[in-house]
Write a structure and sequence with these properties.
Layout (H helix, E strand, L loop, with lengths): L3 E4 L3 H9 L1 H11 L1 E5 L5 E5 L2 H15 L4 H4 L8 E6 H5 L2 H12 L4 H10 L2 E5 L2 E6 L1 H15 L4 H19 L5
Helix pairs in contact: 2-3, 7-8, 7-9, 8-9
Length: about 180
């Protein structure tokens, strides 16, 4: 066995994991790890190799940041990454955090859905964080829009910047000079 990874997630998400032990078993099977929740609510991950442990920890951490397990499990693919923006660190006060979270989600979730559709990244607004799962280019595009909103830019400006980044990335993938 390799070393052991330990991880805390919010009590709300931990309760959800305890209710669905099959989800932890699935992560363990896919990542070739033994995963257990200790008496102190610490999640222990022990694998046969460091990569499996690292991947399992990433998956569970992403789940802890509000992603559904199905989406968190996409982190098992080599081209899938997790990024998170700590709004508390950037904005400090609760009113600003709440306002920015509302702007990122948008009315009836429309802003978040649009950013996910254009960028291809998955976005989770949970607690004081905004997290992303996707390829590095997808995350970059989604973060472009989210950062514009965090900085106080309009939704229109956020979308324009994201769409420009999307076109540039598409052109680069097709080897078209931009």
């Amino acid at each position: 066995m390799g070393s052991m990874q330990q991880l805390y997630i919010t009590s709300e998400r931990l309760k959800s994991l305890k209710k669905n032990p099959k989800e932890l078993e699935l992560v363990g099977r896919i990542c070739n790890c033994a995963i257990a929740i200790g008496d102190d609510d610490l999640i222990m991950i022990e694998g046969h190799d460091a990569y499996g442990e690292f991947t399992a920890k990433n998956v569970i951490f992403a789940y802890g940041r509000g992603f559904e397990m199905k989406i968190a499990l996409t982190l098992c693919h080599d081209d899938s990454y997790f990024e998170s923006i700590d709004l508390e660190q950037l904005l400090g006060n609760e009113r600003q955090i709440s306002r920015v979270k509302s702007r990122i989600i948008g009315e009836n979730g429309r802003a978040k859905t649009y950013m996910e559709t254009v960028s291809g990244a998955k976005i989770s607004v949970y607690g004081n964080t905004v997290s992303f799962i996707g390829s590095s280019l997808q995350i970059n595009e989604a973060q472009t829009a989210v950062n514009t909103l965090i900085e106080g830019g309009t939704h229109k400006l956020a979308y324009l910047k994201m769409e420009a980044a999307h076109r540039k990335n598409k052109a680069a993938q097709l080897n078209i000079p931009s």
